Amino acid sequence: MVRFILRRLLQMVLAFFGTTLIVYALMFAGQGDPIQALAGERPVTDAQRAYLTEKFHLDRTGIDGFFYRYFDYIRNLLQGDLGESLTGRQIGDILAAAWPVTIKLALIAMTVTVLVGVTAGVLAGIRRASIFDNSTLLLTLVVLAVPTIVLAPIAQYFLGVRWQLFPPTAGADPDFYALLLPGIVLGSLSLATALRLTRTSVAENLRADYVRTARSKGLVKRRIVGIHVLRNSLIPVVTFLGVELGNLMGGAIITEGVFNIPGVGFNLFRAIRTEDGPLVVGIVSVLVVVYLIANLVVDVLYAVLDPRIRYE
Amino acid sequence: MRGNRPTRGSERKADTVSQSAVQPTPASPTPEGGHLLEVRDLHVEFRTGEGVAKVINGVSYHLDAGETLAVLGESGSGKSVTAQAIMGILDTPPAMIRSGQIRYQGRDLLTQSEEQRRQVRGTEIAMIFQDALSALNPTFPVGWQIGETLRQRAGMSRGDARRRAIELMELVKIPAAASRLGDYPHQFSGGMRQRVMIAMALALNPKVLIADEPTTALDVTVQAQIMDLLADLRRDLRMAMILITHDLGVVAGVADRIAVMYAGRIVEHADVRSLYRSPAHPYTKGLLESIPRLDFHGQQLSTIRGLPPNLMRIPSGCPFHPRCPYVQQVCVDVVPHDLVLGDGRTSACHFAQEVRDDRAR
């Protein structure tokens, strides 16, 4: 197990360099004149141009110059310096402000997913082909079919504006209540998937041979379902939830955009729109690390839940 | 019941024929309440999207304390379904018990509540299954799974259950039992896994053990070990055993009586020696002839032609008639009753005597 984790950590290093390199290349390859892009509409004097060219090592050209700048960036990154955005703010500061909001949002969404999705999935799996099963099937299909970009504004309009049950937008430094509706909207998609997955898994496991054995041992039904079936059914569900938590931690561009939540996704979207290269690369670099760690945790958890899986 | 079967003799044949030809006698004329376990005229259907499959069509058999009954048949003959009906672990739906009785110690289990039936499972009647790998829960250690029965059903403490689990694993001869308590099913070999299964079934000292093809998934050498173990345990613990199998070779040394099933019916019922010596149903005869024999070196192994019937369209008359070498018009038209052949033998064949006395093998 330790060897597996070490090997995965090594793979993560490779994955980290690979992804940051690609994002770095894509972000700066498209720009014609980075100095003009930095200045925006204003004219750039020769003195300014010379200073900035030296500061960003733009005097080195071609592939050689690109890699020089990339490794310069990585060196700073490893020292904890994410650099400055084009707006002059420290990227580290931007992320420090945005991340707690996104984490709060992700936890709300995850709680909704687990409480509603997994519970309803277990019930639907036990009572297959019942009214409850069929109505949840229909509901989840609707939720899965409607994109967030439609679902979020509808929820915002009806629940936030029309009936005023929730604040329609979050704004700066939002509290738990302001994040509740966006959290539910964000969680509804993974909720639907978690429900379908749990239902199928429970239904399959109920037909498994070991259930027949448990019954022939004379165990009560509650115990057979609650201990034997659940333990086995939740293996794929936990895997899904782990990956999903990694996704949610990366911020939700659409949901944060619609509800005006100053989280990671919101900042990433703004950075892409304003062609703020350093900020995009900075955020994505950190997201890559978060995502890789989430996946490692899922793999380890998988082995803990299912003794048949041993990474050696 | 066994031992004094007549050797094949024409004088004996004559009076049995005259008796049974006049009036076919229904099966198992048994004294009331005399048997430990008795299945009476059981009918089970499976309802699927494609139609109704008549899986069990009037099965009757009984088991006395301390004896071993082998139930023999091809896959789909209904032998496992009957056993699951006895245990009360049939999935209903799709299965549906249409009629019949399953009497244990004189009480009809089919009229009891689910809670009453649950109490019977494990303590009175226990069951082991064919594939121990899938029959054991893959996510719990075997010691935990054996102990669970003790904790949940016998109210034992964790420590007591653990100690008793080790004893049970030693009883089924698992080496270094104490150190294997925490291992998971996939860490055991096939034979050891089946031993774990047996230990679990024995946890509550059942009076009846149903073994559903306990050796089918195992290597031949391991099969013999498991059969020996089962036979020893049955004797030492004074259990009765129903041994379900499709392998006539497995049965010979272990069983007292054999019930042969075909298409959801018992087609022949006899003590082991009589059945091997002179099968009285063409199906049993076919099964015996399809066993490879050392002394038949160089000859083509005979097989039963055709396939088992589709249980949604069971053939008219005798369900075996499309595959039967003895087939006559009466077999197509009339469902044969169980003919009593003496010494507790029955055969559901219109030509039972002819088949029994036809020694041309």
State mean pLDDT of chain A (0 to 100 scale).
Answer: 85
How many strand elements of chain A?
Answer: 0
Q: Strand share of the residues of chain A?
A: under 5%
What value does the average pLDDT of chain B take?
Answer: 82
CATH T-level topology of chain B: Rossmann fold
What order do the helices and strands come in, and which of them pair?
The complex is a heterodimer of chains A (312) and B (361).
Chain A: H1 2-29, H2 34-39, H3 46-55, H4 62-78, H5 91-126, H6 131-145, H7 148-162, H8 176-206, H9 209-216, H10 221-249, H11 253-258, H12 264-273, H13 277-305
Helix pairs in contact in A: 1-13, 5-6, 5-8, 5-10, 6-8, 7-8, 8-10, 9-10, 10-13, 12-13
Chain B: H1 10-22, E1 37-48, E2 51-63, E3 68-72, H2 79-87, E4 95-104, E5 107-108, H3 114-120, E6 125-128, H4 132-135, H5 142-153, H6 158-171, H7 177-180, H8 190-202, E7 208-212, H9 220-236, E8 240-245, H10 248-251, E9 257-262, E10 265-271, H11 272-277, H12 282-289, H13 329-333, E11 339-342, E12 345-347, H14 352-357
Parallel strand pairs in B: 3-8, 3-9, 6-7, 7-8
Antiparallel strand pairs in B: 1-2, 1-4, 4-5, 9-10, 10-12, 11-12
